[in-house]
Amino acid sequence: MDHPAAPDVTGSTDWVGRYLDQLATQRQLSPHTIDAYRRDLQQLSTLARGMPWQQVRQADIRRLTSILHSQQLGPRSIARKLSSWRGFFGWLSDHMTLAANPTDGVRAPKRPAPLPKALAVDDAVQLVSSEPPGRTTLTSAELCNRAMFELLYSSGLRVAELAGLDVAYTKGGDGQAASLGWIDLASGDVLVTGKGNKMRTVPVGSHARSALAAWLAVRPPPADGSAALFLSERGTRVSPRVVQLRLKQHAIDAGTPVHVHPHMLRHSFASHVLQSSGDLRAVQDMLGHASITSTQVYTALDFQHLAAVYDQAHPRAKAK
């Protein structure tokens, strides 16, 4: 009795070509998508150095992704290639015996966390100190805004911490909660309760103290009977969302070329203090980070600044 011929798995059959034909005819993928699959699978074949498809194991796929990573291919591109390879081996298992899909369990390298966006020093200073065009006298609402923005940049507060500030410490009572944060202009400090109910004290710069004094001179009594430092148009404690919207509009009016949000001023504070001092532990304390790992991201921003200075200033920086 004759036995059926063993499937051709040595590479003489154009398995990749057959798979691509199936994608084009049955799944009706676009020519652009088919070309992308073709490039991914041709690269797999090249990296596998002609190894028969049924002999490719998970360890081989891990090795190939490591090669791609060492060639500076980004995590997103590697993930796309793995997806292409996974689909091919899934289809191939219907046409030959595979021990398993060798791509199963293989993941692309993690994408690096994006660096927080910080303004350049001059841009940050210009933003928080800018005045309405053609005017030098500010309304009470504008004085409130300036004090908020100066304080955000001066002390690196979270927007919720800023919104929760009182004019001074209050013990509570009569339905009012005790202060979680307050300003102390006499000592030049702001005290806030951050994440994990951890209280910290952060210095307030001279420009922020001047802006706060100007605002306090015109600040009306809060309509809600609270001791809130910063007020909404209704005279109640300002919300983080209102701070965000006011800063966004202020940045547009000031001609800032990027979208600005309160956390960007916090990032700018941390980056600029680190650039000047190099004291990572002090920046950690002022930001209220429980772990210094959270603060270390600013060392990358500091290096970016140093690299930019080098590129602009060093006579051999642009030598090819």
From TrEMBL:
CDD domains: INT_XerDC_C
Domain named Tyr recombinase: residues: 114-311
PROSITE patterns the UniProt entry points to: CB, TYR_RECOMBINASE
Quaternary assembly: Forms a cyclic heterotetrameric complex composed of two molecules of XerC and two molecules of XerD.
Locations listed in the record: Cytoplasm
Main location, first listed in the record: cytoplasm
Function: Site-specific tyrosine recombinase, which acts by catalyzing the cutting and rejoining of the recombining DNA molecules. The XerC-XerD complex is essential to convert dimers of the bacterial chromosome into monomers to permit their segregation at cell division. It also contributes to the segregational stability of plasmids.
InterPro entries documented for this protein: CB, DNA_brk_join_enz, Integrase-like_cat_sf, Integrase_catalytic, Integrase_recombinase_N, Integrase_SAM-like_N, Tyrosine_recombinase_XerC/XerD, Tyrosine_recombinase_XerCD
Domain annotation Core-binding (CB): ranges: 10-93
Gene3D superfamilies attached to this UniProt entry: 1.10.150.130, Intergrase catalytic core (1.10.443.10)
Protein name: Tyrosine recombinase XerC
Entry's family note: Belongs to the 'phage' integrase family. XerC subfamily.
Alphabetized UniProt keyword annotations: Cell cycle, Cell division, Chromosome partition, Cytoplasm, DNA integration, DNA recombination, DNA-binding
Originating gene: xerC
Active site per database record: R158, K195, H263, R266, H289, Y298
